[in-house]
Amino acid sequence: MPLTRQDALRLLRFCLGPDDSGSVELADDGAALVTISPAEPSIGVRTFEAPTFEAALRQAADSRLLKAACVEKQIRFLELGAAKAPAEAAGSVAPSRRQRPDLFPKLLAATASLLHEVQNERGMSSIFAASSGRIFKRELGRQRERVDTRRERFKAVWREIADTVSGSLARRLDHADQHIAELVAARPAIDGGHRDAGAVVASYTQANAELLGVGDGALVSYASGDNRHSALACVVLLYAKEKTGIERARIGAAIATHSVSDEDRRALAALTAARTSYLHVFSATAPRPAEQLMERALASTTYADLTRMEELLLSGRETELGIDARAWYNVISHEMDHMGEIGTAALGLVGGEL
Question: Span 180-203, mean pLDDT?
Answer without folding.
Answer: 96
